[in-house]
Design brief:
alpha/beta; Rossmann fold; seven-stranded parallel β-sheet; globular
């Protein structure tokens, strides 16, 4: 695959979308922005819902790749998750197929495997102790379930239509980690841009699933598949550890919120429709 240079960024007004639209142009990308609400500072951005088939096809038309970040990014009712994350992702892939775009980078989530127990050892973990990317999916919420759907949809569109996808199971991507748990799953914005760039340009990915985080001392999962794309993380959350541990304490294996990859998502009650 020749390196694409024009990418449609969905969810451009969101937190991760804002970070990526700030950082990806330095890699030579021309960004076409789309969101359901106006994008601050970008009057040229396309304001459209993923349910609008014609607007979505027009947004996709002529781009070399899509970075699909648009979603409800926290737990919500199944009806809202269905409309935004499941049906919206399906419509995005249909537009990609219809317009002949050959590469998607899909923002999956660690919550697709949220009920997976976190590794029991002390950091840093040996390679054999890290959670592999082929661990069975165990979604912790309707949100996590929607990310499992997105990964399966990506596989279907690769097998049936030849649309390549890298699904990135993102931990958390903020300028700084906010909790002790995030010390294990944090991806710096700079590393997020490095990983997205690698996912957009790597050759022969078919459908590849990778974990998305920095090279954290307290890392829980295997970054080998991401590194195989050409990703070279530069950051480590450990520089934030002393302050966070002093404030919050170390993770407690007897605390249900600390036992699994999904953190408190695994213990929160489901949000049913009202």
């Amino acid at each position: 695959m020749t390196a694409p240079r024009t990418v449609l960024l969905t969810g451009a007004a969101g937190g991760l979308g804002t970070l990526m639209r700030e950082l990806l142009p330095a890699y030579g990308w021309t960004l076409r922005l789309l969101d359901a609400r106006p994008v601050e500072g970008a009057p040229e951005a396309i304001v459209a819902d993923l349910a609008d088939r014609e607007a979505l096809r027009e947004a996709v038309r002529g781009v070399d790749a899509v970075l699909h970040l648009a979603a409800i990014s926290l737990e919500s009712s199944f009806e809202r998750i269905l409309r935004a994350n499941i049906e919206g992702t399906f419509r995005l892939y249909e537009a990609v197929r219809e317009e002949g775009v050959r590469r998607v980078v899909f923002a999956s989530s660690n919550h697709a495997v949220g009920y997976t127990p976190r590794p029991p050892g002390e950091p840093p973990l040996a390679p054999g102790e890290l959670i592999p990317v082929d661990t069975p999916r165990r979604p912790d919420t309707f949100y996590g379930l929607s990310k499992c759907f997105g990964e399966d949809l990506a596989q279907l569109y690769w097998d049936r239509h030849g649309v390549e996808t890298v699904s990135i199971r993102i931990g958390s991507c903020f300028r700084e980690p906010r909790t002790v748990r995030m010390l294990s799953v944090w991806m710096s914005p700079g590393d997020g841009a490095r990983l997205c760039h690698a996912a957009l340009t790597a050759e022969g990915v078919g459908h590849t699933v990778v974990y998305g985080s920095s090279a954290n001392t307290r890392l829980w999962w295997d970054l080998g598949p991401a590194r195989a794309l050409g990703y070279e993380p530069q950051d480590d959350s450990e520089r934030f550890a002393a302050a966070l541990v002093a404030e919050q304490g170390e993770l407690d294996p007897d605390n249900p919120d600390h036992r699994c990859l999904g953190g408190h998502f695994v213990t929160r009650p489901p949000i049913w429709p009202h």
